[in-house]
Design brief:
Elements lengths: L6 H25 L2 H27 L14 H30 L8 H29 L4 H7 L3 H30 L3 H29 L6 H12 L4 E13 L2 E10 L5 H18 L3 E8 L1
Keywords: Membrane, Transmembrane, Transmembrane helix, Transport
InterPro entries: Cation_efflux, Cation_efflux_TM, Cation_efflux_TMD_sf, SLC30A9
Protein name: Cation diffusion facilitator family transporter
């Protein structure tokens, strides 16, 4: 449990996607390429996603007030869930629709030279953004595998950018391959097929992101290993006999609310129990910096 900050990867992805979206739409318009228009839609959705995530980060840092005594940390989880829906609807669904339309009513592609130039540049930009995002994510995943790190991550901004950039790079490779075959074999339907495959790729990514964001939004708690460590820490205090119950939830990637029911020695008076609670609270907060709120109820 340590503080997380992944804004560097978000800003790098935002800059890359703005530039890429413009060039893809221009190339797609002049060459009648369905897959290129689909890629332009993909980059536009990614751009809006990064803006929404940055907005969510800003909102999540608002100070607590009487209406939200624990702060606004879950704003980040809410906007991450909205982003997953946008990837599905605007990214995936529109790409599939665009592809199916061009398969049913194929258009012969013009000179694809500019498409290849744009795709190559996009691959360089998206690849660079993916490398930055992967490096930032590596700082938080520790010894865990990539999949386990994504499942266990409490910060959707970390795996969201990795997923977006990874899907973007894979989508570009699909488009380059099928667009090239479409031009060489003179089969314009392959260009539409590329759009469909990119759309399906985005739909798959959106389901995974929605699943993880929903779990966090619904109140995911701390890991079992961390719970055991906290219990051991509590029992180091001579006044504590057992931890009867432990409830926790991530208010934000950097804030945890922890509630404990602790069995204390029977011969302790109110002042001694209060002192023990203060000691245990201070010990937990110093050992686990993310635990911002600690509530201890004597059994």
């Amino acid at each position: 449990m340590k503080p997380i900050n992944n804004q560097k990867s978000i800003y790098s992805a935002l800059i890359a996607n703005i530039l890429i979206a413009i060039t893809k739409f221009i190339a797609g318009f002049f060459t009648n390429s369905s897959s290129m228009i689909s890629e332009g839609i993909h980059s536009t959705v990614d751009t809006s996603n990064q803006l929404l995530i940055l907005y969510g980060i800003k909102q999540s840092k608002k100070k607590a007030d009487r209406h939200h005594p624990f702060g606004y940390g879950k704003e980040l989880y809410f906007w991450s869930f909205i982003v997953s829906i946008l990837i599905f609807s605007l990214g995936g669904a529109l790409s599939i629709y665009q592809g199916v339309t061009h398969i049913i009513h194929p258009l012969h592609m013009g000179n694809p030279l500019w498409n290849y130039v744009v795709l190559l540049l996009s691959l360089i930009f998206e690849g660079s953004s993916l490398i930055i995002a992967a490096k930032e994510f590596n700082k938080t995943r520790g010894e865990m595998s990539w999949w386990n790190a994504i499942v266990n991550s409490k910060d959707p901004t970390s795996f969201l950018v990795v997923f977006e950039d990874g899907a973007a790079v894979l989508g570009l490779l699909i488009v380059m391959l099928l667009m090239g075959l479409s031009h060489i074999l003179n089969i314009p339907e392959l260009d539409g097929l590329a759009s469909v495959l990119v759309g399906l790729l985005l739909v798959g990514a959106s389901f995974i992101l929605a699943r993880e964001s929903r779990s966090l939004l619904m109140g995911e708690g701390i890991a079992i290993e961390t719970q055991k460590k906290i219990s051991q820490l509590v029992l180091k205090d001579n006044a504590a006999l057992a931890v009867k119950n432990m409830l926790s939830t991530y208010q934000s990637p950097n804030e945890v609310i922890l509630m404990l029911v602790v069995d204390f020695e029977d011969n302790l008076d109110t002042e001694e129990i209060t002192a023990a609670i203060d000691r245990i609270t201070a010990s937990i907060k110093s050992t686990f910096p993310l635990v911002r709120f600690v509530f201890i109820q004597p059994s």
